Amino acid sequence: MTAPIALTIAGSDSSGGAGIQADLKTFAALGVYGASVITALTAQNTEGVSGIHQVPAEFVTAQIDAVFSDLDVGAVKIGMVAQPSVIDAIVAGLKRWSPQHVVLDPVMVATSGDRLLAAEAVDALRTRLIPLASVITPNLPEAAALLDEPVAAGEAAVESQGRRLLAMGCKAVLIKGGHGEGAECVDYLIGTSGTIALAAPRIATKNTHGTGCSLSSAIAAELAKGGEMETAVRSAKAWISAAIAAADRFSVGHGHGPVHHFHKFY
Questions:
Q1: What is the pTM of this model?
Q2: Is 127 assigned a catalytic role?
Q3: What pLDDT does residue 208 have?
Q4: Is 226 a catalytic residue?
Q5: Which residues of 247-264 are buried (b: 16+ CB within 10 A; e: fewer)?
């Protein structure tokens, strides 16, 4: 038996709700074998991030080469990359191994509000990593930060920002509407052929820790299984919406608890 394989390149969340841990749970929930390259260790729980320990760039390189030299990776998800040297290592690794699909989640701020991306790394993210991505998945504040603009208000402004992000060299942009207002959470998938609005009911829960990590991982999982981009994004959106809807089934921590990755099973 062979299984599709997805690789997450991201930071570790010691509380298990976001980062590498959320990515691997997502892959498993969607029937994909998960491998990982850890870029940073965080001391973190549902209430916030109390410390970040960076993994040296040369060890990030060693992890990338170990995985790609042995495993048939179908898709890569990239999350927390806090330092320019680590971004350089990832860029070099992607160019060396040429994976078919790269999903980049430009993680800049945690759900708790803690900043996860060093200011000097933002330009490297824009100019070196985004051009290698099949799709980037910023939320509304991240899209604005990447463009040094105010947060977009309204569909036209979101699409305009998406077009400018697309011009940075990626193949598609998914701007997530979780930080927006209204009864529906609308994500916008913007590509060279047009814009698709993907709506789902906005769910009233504080348990949203790891939502962005898990959505981007779900897209990578669906791409690893052979799905086309629009199909992969639609499937991932449906899955994360169900995971958020089921998040209150259990109680984890005292802050923003995690989504329920295994809602289909228990």
A1: 0.95
A2: no
A3: 86
A4: no
A5: beeeebeebbbbbbbebe
